[in-house]
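Bench notes, afternoon.
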Amino acid sequence: MNISFYLTRPTANIETSIYARLCYSGLKLKWFTPEKICPSYWNKDNQRAKQTGKFKEYPEFNARLNNIESYINNIYRRYLNDHGGKIPTPEILKDLFDTEIKKREPLAEKERSFFGFFEELINQSKKGVRLHPKTGKPISNNTVKTYVTTFKHLSEFQLNYGREINFNSIDLDFYNDYVEYLMTGKKLHPKTGHLISLNLSSNTIGKHIQIIKLVLNEGTERGLYTNKSFKSKRFVTIREDSDSIYLCEKEVQELECLDISNNARLEKVRDLFLIGCRTGLRYSDYSILKADQIKDGFIETIQTKTNAPVVIPIHNTVKKIIEKYNGVLPKSISNQKTNAYLKELGKMLPSLTVTTSKTFTKGGIRIVKNYKKWELLCTHTARRSFATNEFLAEDYPTPTITIMAITGHKTEKAFLRYIRVTPSGHAKLLQRNWTNRNKLRVAG
C-alpha cells in the first residue's frame, strides 16, 4: 500500500485539512485525517510539517501523522488476515479508519448510503408522492430532471476523483473541491470515452449546490445526518443575475405588425409568443391554452410549474389572436423549435439587429460576449417582456404587487431581480414620475 499526505487547500491562508491518498491493489482512496495545518508550515516534499520555530508543535504534529500512517497500514493488514487475503473496498477501509482512528461510531448502512437516500427522493418525486415543502404540491418534472443531473454529477465526481460521498463527508472541504470540479473538472464522455470539461456556469453550479443542501436538510430531518457543515455561510448557493433580454413595448408592437401572412409556420409561433408577452405566462402554460380557459374576458388557468391558479384579463392583442383563429389557438410545437423560429422572426425586426452584450461566469471565468439581440430571443423572453413592460408602462404603470400576482414571484426583491430595468431605466422612470407630478400640480 502506498500512502501520501496532501493539503486540501494548499494555497489557503488559514488552516486546511490533510487527507491521505491510498493506492493499493489497483484501488484508490482519499481519506480525510483528523489533522489540519496552515499551508505555510507544510513541506509538500516530505509531506510533513516544516521544522520551524514559527510552528513549535511540529514534532508532535509529525508524530501524529506517523501514527496515522502506521494505523492505516495495520488496519489494512489486519483486514487481509481476518478475511483470508480478500482486498477491502475503499468504502470498507474508510469506515474502519473513521471508527478506529477518528474514534467514530460505525456508520449504519443507511447512514453510509447518501446516494441511496438521494435516489429514494428522486423516485418518490417521480411518482408524485413527495410534495414540495412550501407549496404542498408534487415536484414538477423539470425539477426531477435537475435532481437526476445533480445525482449524475455527484456520482461522476466520486468515481473520477476517488472521493467517497456520504452524509458525513459532505463538509466545507467537499464543497470547495466539488465547486472547483464543476467549474474546471473533467469527466468521461459516455460515448467516446474521451475526457471533456464540465465548465458549468455559476448559476448552474448554484442550482446543483441548492439540491445537495435540500437532500442534506431532508436527511437531517429524518435523523440520518448530524454534521451541520452544509449550514455554514461558506456553503453558499452560487447565484448571479441573468442578462436575459426583454422586448420593450415598441418592439412587441413591431413584432405584432410584422406582415408574415405568407408564412403560416412563423405566423403561428409569433402569435403564441405575443400571447406570452401579454399574459406573463410561461411557455409551458401559454403554449397549451384552451378555449375553455377563457371566460368572461379573463384567462383562468393552473400554472404548470407551481400548480397555482392565476386569472389574467384578456389584452386586446390576445383578443385579436383568439378571434383570428376562431377561438382555437394555434397548436404549439416543441420549445426547441419555437426558439429557433423566434430567432428567424427576430432577424426580420430592425430593432433587434442591434448588438447587446451578455456577461456570465463559466468555468470560474467572467465572460463578456456580444450578440445581436435577436440571437437571444427565446420563449421565456415573452414572460420577462410582460413583467418589465407592465412595470415601466408610461401612462399607467401596473403596481408591482399586481404583476407579481400574475408572474408568481413571492418577494419584491426576486421580482426586481427578474425584470430587465437598467440603472438608466430606473432614472428615466423617476424622471417621468416627477414630470407627471408637476403636470398634476399645474392642472390642480
